[in-house]
Write a structure and sequence with these properties.
Blueprint: E1 6-11, H1 14-17, H2 37-49, E2 75-81, H3 84-87, H4 90-101, E3 105-111, H5 117-122, E4 128-131, H6 137-147, E5 152-158, H7 185-192
Parallel strand pairs: 2-3
Antiparallel strand pairs: 1-4, 1-5
Amino acid sequence: MASLLRSVFFVAGLSSALPLSAQALDGSETPSVEKTEIDLARDRMIAAKRNKVYYTNKFDLSGLPEYVPQSKISGVIRMRGAKYFTDSPLAEWWAAEFQKWHPDVKFDFHLRSSQHAISSLIYGVSDISPLGRAITNAERLAFQREFNYAPLGVIAVTGSQTLSGWNPAVAIYVHKSNPLASISMEQLDGVFGAHP
């Protein structure tokens, strides 16, 4: 639905990143930083709901062609950006499924904030960068000035309408003097998703 915030992956030169004979990471760990009480509270909230299943609808994927690897690849896929994929088990699931076909590929997840996503692509420390929001004009311009082409955005997942702590859905607020008492998601989609 057009009214939901979408997480977007941005990929810089993905065709040049595969096959992944990329340089190996040095294995050094991120320096330890003492967390604030707000960070600790968020960590507790996320831990309490990290593995709970909220969405149980299953999609019939039988009509999709079966994936057949065209070549053997190895190396490291580096991801920098939104926390959503490591706050939930998604990153682990994706890595495990990918490694069934490409066991020599390792993943380096440094997913802390959407603020890191595009700059990580520009500075060459990320191959895939998830955003929990739309790319800003300033980020797009910086990327284009560096590489002379636009970043490729792929909508992968939508926001959470009813679950706090994940990427939020868009909220609509009206002034108290507005006579509108309520509006459905379908009506909002008609207002904001309509094409002229």
